């Protein structure tokens, strides 16, 4: 079967659309994550999503909502989203309001979230039939994207992209020099909080598709490669999104032909694009 | 009918600092600092390291909130009129990984946001501002490739592009060579002469304060002297602020 024949299958179409939507979101967000030296943030929030999914799964099983006909009510993402946003608020507060550095603040959130997720998933019976498992969350299941998942991913992608593009200029200014931006009356604390909240939503929605473990790579590698090639922030943004889109298509195709996990091939494709950027990019 | 765009009358000071006190925990940074700077003056703020000079500038800009007192710029609370103020921060180690050109940095002075694309009129204004500071050839050069002196010129161009009525500079000569420092003071005086703007400059250079400023504030947490340089840069004021007389021999009053 050729890749073009595979595209006729709905599951592959959903995988491709979900992957492209995630590439756009991650590219736009990744520019600011990389320039603000918050590469660990992707890991932190992805693991917060894991903890949130654990809480959501536990609540659904405990309340006997498995198999409910009411839309998303039987999906742990309903709990994972606000939990991830809460983690983002806590990280932002620890960074700005205490003496803790960014990596410490993220590390604390990371550890607590993982512990919660492991604990709560261990309490869920194996036959609960939730439609999502801890292993799927850790390693991703892009080919398992359901129609309802796809609506959520595309919807978040449209809203997140609109918000990030609308705030791009102010975020860029605050990222370049926080003090200079504040002297021009920009509320950089609020901007950073919005950035973290958007990151939490993007990562929570994307992590269940690409995997908690690989989520940080989606944020960092395309933006890092773009930085090596770009002269301006605008060029970096366009390149980060472009590299994400190309690696998604190529990675899915490679995983199809080699019959290997798609999340991993997408990330390895990103890495393959990063290497020439590092070697031949701007100094 | 009141013309809301009319500027405050000349009697309104460019900078009004009223009993400002600021502490970080147990450490007192500023103690009951008060002064009025009339419009059109060139104020040099001098004092030893840790005297609170930079902190005072940040209070004036609305970047730091004092525990007591307040600051006003042209009769309005600090931070309310960013367009009337051009700020040149200390040339600290800036992020050289940030992809930016000198032109883009200057345009932030017009837009107050980062430009995705520098458009025609903005490009002309940015170029004119860079040429004014002797950096016209640097417009498209990446900031990471600029020397300390060139970067300082780019920041100064950014501050001046909006034609501010008040220019605030925090140790602008740090990290620049003697010739660039000389050019800097000439530029400031030229801008002030052309526009009647007010200049506030934090400096360690007592000679520069003596020769370029019309008013000097000697600060070491408290005000130890405020007024004309030939009056304020005296042995007694400097000894009170710096703790010893030896600084005085470096200047002639």
Which key features would you list for this structure?
heterodimer; A: 283 residues; ABC transporter involved in vitamin B12 uptake, BtuC; 0% strand; B: 253 residues; alpha/beta; Rossmann fold; six-stranded mixed β-sheet; 10 strands; disordered C terminus
Tell me the distance between the termini of chain B.
51 Å
| Level-2 CATH architecture of chain B | 3-Layer(aba) Sandwich
**Multimeric organization:** heterodimer
Percent in strands of chain A: under 5%
How is the biggest beta sheet of chain A arranged?
none
- Helical stretch count of chain A? 13
Count of helical stretches of chain B: 8
Text of the CATH class of chain A: Mainly Alpha
Domain tally of chain A:
1
Descriptive report:
- The complex is a heterodimer of chains A (283) and B (253).
- With 283 residues, chain A is mainly alpha-helical.
- Chain A has one domain (3-128, 146-278): ABC transporter involved in vitamin B12 uptake, BtuC.
- Chain A is built from 13 helices and no strands.
- Chain A has helices spanning 3-6, 10-35, 39-62, 77-97, 102-122, 134-139, 147-166, 168-176, 178-183, 188-210, 212-229, 233-258, 262-280.
- In chain A, helix 3 (39-62) packs across helix 4 (77-97) and helix 11 (212-229) packs across helix 12.
- The model of chain A has no long low-confidence stretch (mean pLDDT 87).
- With 253 residues, chain B is an alpha/beta fold.
- Chain B has one domain: P-loop containing nucleotide triphosphate hydrolases (Rossmann fold).
- Chain B contains eight helices and ten strands.
- Chain B has helices at 53-61, 102-111, 120-132, 148-160, 178-195, 206-212, 229-232, 235-242; strands spanning 15-24, 27-37, 42-46, 68-73, 76-77, 85-88, 166-170, 198-202, 215-220, 222-227.
- A six-stranded mixed beta sheet of chain B has the order 6-7-8-3-9-10, sandwiched between helices. In chain B, strands 2-1-4-5 form a four-stranded antiparallel beta sheet, covered by helices on one side.
- In chain B, strand 4 and strand 5 (76-77) form a beta hairpin.
- In chain B, helix 3 (120-132) packs across helix 4.
- The longest helix of chain B is centred in the C-terminal third of the chain and has 18 residues, at 178-195.
- Chain B is globular, with a radius of gyration of 18 Å.
- The N and C termini of chain B lie far apart (51 Å).
- Chain A binds chain B through residues 35, 168-173, 175-177, 179-186, 227, 230-236, 282, and chain B through 61-63, 79-80, 82, 85, 87, 89, 94-95, 97-101, 104-105, 108, 111-117, 142.
